[in-house]
């Protein structure tokens, strides 16, 4: 992934004292270490729970960082990045402005220091701007005399505030989920403040969209009345594909997924989604946590074959371990009609 520009600004924060910005005066030089660090940072970011959306094109009074004007444009960062891409603003100036606002955000909500890393990268035809506030951890290393020594290193997995802009999607104008940012668990005010700093507006609920996709898949499996083995294979295909997309930071494309699920009828699942009107976008940012919770329980014995999604356990399906009974509360329509005819 070629690095077009990279820089680190340090923000020092100790107790109640105001945050102090130690700004870099020039971008980082290209190096193998920087490339390797980018790979680690990218993997760590993709593993985070994130919000997905776009730049706001309106003004807002909500979530402003203390000390800023209430009517400041929510899209101020978007305007600055636009200037940078048009060579009207240099990378150092762009990123220093971000660091200054981030320091004020830390003053208002956190008492931690960190290094703000900002990278402008290109991958194939796509271009990304990534920013992350990184923290350090104390560790150990072995020196040249084979002795253990203290070693302070960046903890890439502990990025309390990070964001990624897909510049290519943003400029194309046909997406509303080109901007993503981490969901900070430290508090609602911090999360809102960070979104305001970015000028970001959530455009899609990744966990909700993923759950809807899995519901559509469950309905599809039931409608097609698939055999146990075929159902399990398709479930694994969906989860493997969506998880791989999540690890790459890429969305699930419904048409591509449909083709993977059935090579003989590549449009079958896609048509099922469209005909049933689940309200899904053509591309969905997958939520890893939701995917990890999804699996199918299957079993066959004595002429009885049972298969259902794990999320139904406790609602539509109950298991009484004491009496060894499985209770199905919502009998599938097709099965219900067959039972009625038999009776």
Automatic annotation (TrEMBL):
Superkingdom of the source species: Bacteria
Subcellular location(s) of the protein: Cytoplasm, Nucleoid
GO CC, any one term: bacterial nucleoid
Entry keyword Chaperone: no
Gene Ontology molecular functions: double-stranded DNA binding; single-stranded RNA binding
UniProt xrefs under Pfam families: NA37
Alphabetical UniProt keywords: Cytoplasm
Main location: cytoplasm
InterPro entries noted in UniProt: Nucleoid_associated_NdpA
Keyword Oxidoreductase: no
Protein family (similarity comment): Belongs to the YejK family.
Protein name per its UniProtKB record: Nucleoid-associated protein YejK
Lineage: Bacteria, Pseudomonadati, Pseudomonadota, Gammaproteobacteria, Oceanospirillales
């Amino acid at each position: 992934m070629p690095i077009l520009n990279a820089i680190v600004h340090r923000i020092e924060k100790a107790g109640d004292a105001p945050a102090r910005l130690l700004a870099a005066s020039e971008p980082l030089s290209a190096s193998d270490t920087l490339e390797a660090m980018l790979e680690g940072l990218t993997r760590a970011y993709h593993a985070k729970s994130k919000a997905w959306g776009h730049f706001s094109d309106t003004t807002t009074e909500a979530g402003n960082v203390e000390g800023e004007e209430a009517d400041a444009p929510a899209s101020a960062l978007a305007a600055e990045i636009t200037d940078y891409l048009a060579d009207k603003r240099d990378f150092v100036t762009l990123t220093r402005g971000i660091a200054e606002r981030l320091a004020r955000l830390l003053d208002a909500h956190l008492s931690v220091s960190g290094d703000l890393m900002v990278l402008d990268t290109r991958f194939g035809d796509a271009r990304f701007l990534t920013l992350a506030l990184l923290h350090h951890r104390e560790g150990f290393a072995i020196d040249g005399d084979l002795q253990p020594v203290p070693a302070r290193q960046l903890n890439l997995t502990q990025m309390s505030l990070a964001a990624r802009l897909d510049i290519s999607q943003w400029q194309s104008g046909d997406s509303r989920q080109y901007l993503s940012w981490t969901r900070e668990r430290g508090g609602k005010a911090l999360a809102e403040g960070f979104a305001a700093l970015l000028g970001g507006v959530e455009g899609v609920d990744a966990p909700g969209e993923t759950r809807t996709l899995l519901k559509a898949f469950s309905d599809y499996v039931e409608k097609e009345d698939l055999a146990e083995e075929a159902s399990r294979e398709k479930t694994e295909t969906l989860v493997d594909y969506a998880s791989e997309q999540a690890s790459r930071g890429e969305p699930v494309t419904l048409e591509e997924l449909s083709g993977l699920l059935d090579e003989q009828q590549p449009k079958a699942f896609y048509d099922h989604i469209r005909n049933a009107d689940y309200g899904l976008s053509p591309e969905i940012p997958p939520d890893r946590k939701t995917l990890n919770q999804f699996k199918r329980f299957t079993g066959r014995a004595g002429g009885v074959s049972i298969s259902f999604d794990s999320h139904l356990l406790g609602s539509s399906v109950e298991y009484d371990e004491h009496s060894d009974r499985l209770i199905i509360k919502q009998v599938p329509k097709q099965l219900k009609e067959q039972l009625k005819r038999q009776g």
